[in-house]
Amino acid sequence: MSRLRVLFLIVTMIFLSGCWDQQLLRDKLMISGVSIDQNEEGKLIVGVSSIDVTGKGGGQFEINSRIFTANSGNLVRAGELMSYQGTGSIELSKTSLLLIGEQVASHDIYPLFDVHYRNVNTNMGARVAVVKGSALQALTKNAKQAKKLTGSLVRLITMEERKKGLPAENVRSLLTEMTGPEQDFILPYMEQSGGKLQIGGAALFHNRAYSGIKLTMNQMDVLSMLQGKRTQGITYDIQLPSRETGTIRMASLVVKDTHIDKNIHVSGKRITVDLHLRAQADLVEYPNLIHFTDTTYAELRRLTSEQLLEDIKKVITAIQKANCDALDLAEHIVAFYPGLWSSIKWDTVYPNIQMNPSVDVKVESNGVLK
């Protein structure tokens, strides 16, 4: 009996002696942000912001950040080169932001993500953005605050996704976009302003490459209405006629309850699209001190509808020039007209599709000041 007990203890000690595949944090470079650019030779310039956790004793830790860079033909080799500079191998499970330089983004960006899709430790929820100029410079400009920089930028992107209808793209969702029928998508476009990195618009992609055309954030408001993705009201400014020379008077409205009717017509190989936007609006600022009448409301409705229609036309021109199918017309053609889809070259057809927008905005309220 005693021998069985000893044997049992020995076996138990073997299995409880520790985890054989443990991965210690001290052997890893925990990455919070990644930047990717391209040099004149066509090689990648990769930068990472690492999180260093240093024990101070008594259960307290100090968190610092360091920037590592490497030039290489691919991301795997760049990671190896940076691991020689740090204290261990690259760990992507804590990466929350990927910044892509404008130049490298103008080519097919899928190769920049392949390593992420093959690594089980990748944070698939990491946000992705295009940066005007150098992404590395944006990452290293405030190296001491790098540990806060990535977090604040992710929060900024998330906020604009809710407010401006900016597409909520991350590493996971991009895989679906890049393997779709038209391979078009939109990413945040960031630029330096006043020494800070901020969202300057939205980069339009076609065939997994940045087209070089971006929408302003106000234009993203308009596009989100056309996409039928608005869940919040949009502050919209309209220019009022002024009797004073050189004076521009603006009124502000909150456009809400938007509804888009999208009808796609196919005749042979000719495609036309009718877009009718219906919305309601509340007046929040009006510079003319007047008493509101039915005539005033009718004039506001006319001015708002006309100006919004002009803005819609500009957005349609931009997405067609960029060859970016932001309204998902290709998905409709693939689903309902597969024969047509297989017989046309979408890249040449889409920019020439006739789109007929129309707008009807009803002004419901002018606030408490009557």
From TrEMBL:
A Gene Ontology term for the protein's cellular component: membrane
Alphabetic keyword roster: Germination, Lipoprotein, Membrane, Palmitate, Signal
UniProt-listed GO biological process terms: spore germination
A family per Pfam: Spore_GerAC_N
Main location as per UniProt: membrane
Topological type in the membrane: Lipid-anchor
Domain Spore germination GerAC-like C-terminal intervals: 201-367
InterPro entries to which the protein is assigned, alphabetical: GerAC_N (IPR057336), Spore_GerAC-like (IPR008844), Spore_GerAC-like_C (IPR046953), Spore_GerAC_C_sf (IPR038501)
Compartments where located: Membrane
Domain Spore germination protein N-terminal: 21-191
Family statement: Belongs to the GerABKC lipoprotein family.
PANTHER family: SPORE GERMINATION PROTEIN B3
Protein name: Ger(X)C family spore germination protein
